[in-house]
Amino acid sequence: MFRIGICDDVSDARQIIHNLCEEYFKENTIKHEYISFSSGEAVLFYCEGNGNGQIDILFLDVEMSGISGIDLKDTVLRQNKIWRIVFVTNHSESIYHTFSRKTIGFIPKPPLQEKINKMLAITLNELEENVAVIIKGYDGKVIEIRLEDIAYFKASGSYTEIVTYTSSAGSGSYILSTKKIGDLEKEMMPYPIIRVHKSFMVNLANVIDLGEKVTLQNSSMEIPVGRSYKERARMKYLQYGRNRMKKRL
After folding, report:
1. According to the model, what pLDDT value does residue 79 have?
2. pTM of this prediction exceeds 0.70
3. Residues 172 and 191 both lie in one domain
4. Which long-range contacts (CB under 8 A, 24 or more apart) does 19-22 make?
5. Tell me: the pLDDT tens digits for 162-213?
6. Which of 83, 109, 90, 97 shows the shortest CA–CA distance to 16?
7. Are residues 121 and 142 in the same domain?
8. Fewer C-beta within 10 Å: the chain N or C terminus?
9. Helix axis angle, 113-129 relative to 11-27, nearest 10°?
């Protein structure tokens, strides 16, 4: 089920986006549902609910009573309940503050059909790219995990811990593989997963910042960057960001 969130403190503005989305789905028969929010606080409350499903795309106003769209973005950046964000606002001066790993676009009010169509198509395409990665656990069981659910890999002797995001709060659950991290590095080459340290690999899809250390979304873990890995890791991080941006233009 493709889940669409609409957050605006004006009910008519929410209805306009809902109607434009429905026009898109007349030509694209995809099962979908809507969740409407009249405030940023309502979105945060939703994100705190363990039983609530992921919102695939959130259409978000910038200026609202209470928490602003910009502040809300900064909060949900480290959470996994909001997957992609599109800002819908007349405040074009705020565009530089809307950029983030989750942000895929900025639409002026009143929103046009072609703009809504583009943002929905980008999100659906990126969902398809969020492929299932096949991993064999220490017990021999084959496990399928979605790419963006992987946080990082940590060497542990002859084993490797593959740390994943849980459905509740942050990373912490992990798969234990009998393979060494060097062997897994070769297997992960088709994916945006890179070595940053002799003991760590990270998933670029979840990296917020990569400098002296790696900061991951929704994780308190600060992963060290080895001196011999630093330059190459930084280049791959920047290239990944550029490639993702090109696809969203």
Report:
1. 73
2. yes
3. yes
4. 20/111, 20/113, 20/116, 21/116, 21/120
5. 998 754 344 557 889 999 999 999 999 999 999 999 999 999 998 988 999 9
6. 109
7. no
8. C
9. 60
Contact (Cβ atoms closer than 8 angstroms) between residue 145 and residue 129: no
Domain with 87 in it: 2-129
CA distances from 23 to 19, 28, 86, 208 (A): 6, 9, 18, 34
- The reply to whether 56 and 73 lie within a common domain is yes
- 13-65 per-position pLDDT tens digit: 999 999 999 999 998 889 999 999 999 999 999 998 888 999 999 999 998 98
Are residue 125 and residue 194 in the same domain, yes or no?
no
CB-based burial of residue 84 (10 Å sphere; 0-12 exposed, 13-18 middle, 19+ buried)? buried
Show the tokens assigned to 189: 């080459």
Distance CA 83, CA 101 (A): 10
